[in-house]
Amino acid sequence: MAVIRLSLDLSDPHRRHRLEELYEAVFSLRHTLQRQAGRRCRAYWAASHEREVKGGAQVRERLGLSRAGLEQAAYSHMERSRHLGHHLTKALAMHTADQVWQAASRHLFPDASGRRAGAVRPGSWWDVRTIPGRARSHTTQHKWETFRLVGTLQGHLDRYRAQSLPQG
Question: What is the pTM assigned to this prediction?
Answer without folding.
Answer: 0.75
